[in-house]
Every structure is written in C-alpha cells, then in structure tokens.
Amino acid sequence: MPEADRIHLVAASDPWLRRHLRPDEVLEPREQARAQRILVEEAGSRFAYARAFLRTALAQALSASPQEIVIGTGPHGKP
C-alpha cells in the first residue's frame, strides 16, 4: 500500500508526555503565550504538552524538526 494511503495513529499517556517532551523547546512563542493565557494552570499545561506532542509526531512522520511544522488553526483555535 502506498504511504499516502496509510493512516498513522499515535497516542501517549500524560505521564509519558511529561517525561519525554519539553514544550518550551518545541512550541512557537504564540503557542507558549496561548498556554500561559489559559486561566487554569493544569489546562494550560495540558495544552502545551498536547501541542508539543502534535508537533513531535508530525515532525517524525514528515522527517522534519518539530520547529519546522506549521500548524494552522481554524476560527476557534483548533488545529
């Protein structure tokens, strides 16, 4: 099956994310600012780790660095 016809499913637990990812090294300043604006600290942290995971997973699939990944968002800020 050609690579373009495949779907990759990637998942990680919260403890794994916190052990293996460094959002401050991966996120764009705009994403870091958004995480800091979230009033509930744990929710902001979850946003940062989830976005870092998305960048890291896409980067690995595309043979790029997480910083090279451009994530567009819709009108409600969703990727």
Write structural notes for this entry.
With 79 residues, the protein is mainly alpha-helical. It is 53% helix and 0% strand. Helix 3 runs antiparallel to helix 4. The mean pLDDT is 90.
* Shape field: globular
Q: Low-confidence stretches at least 5 residues in length (pLDDT < 50)?
A: none
Query: If helices are DSSP runs of H or I spanning 4 or more residues, what is the number of helices?
Result: 4
Q: Indicate the proportion of strand residues.
A: under 5%
Give me the Rg, rounded: 13 Å
Biggest sheet, open or closed, and with what strands and sense?
none
Number of distinct beta strands: 0
- Mean pLDDT over all positions: 90
Helix/strand/pairing class, anyone?
A: mainly alpha
Helix percent band = 40-55%
Give the oligomer, counting copies of the same chain as homo and different chains as hetero: single chain
Order of helices and strands: HHHH
The first-to-last residue Cα distance is: 28 Å
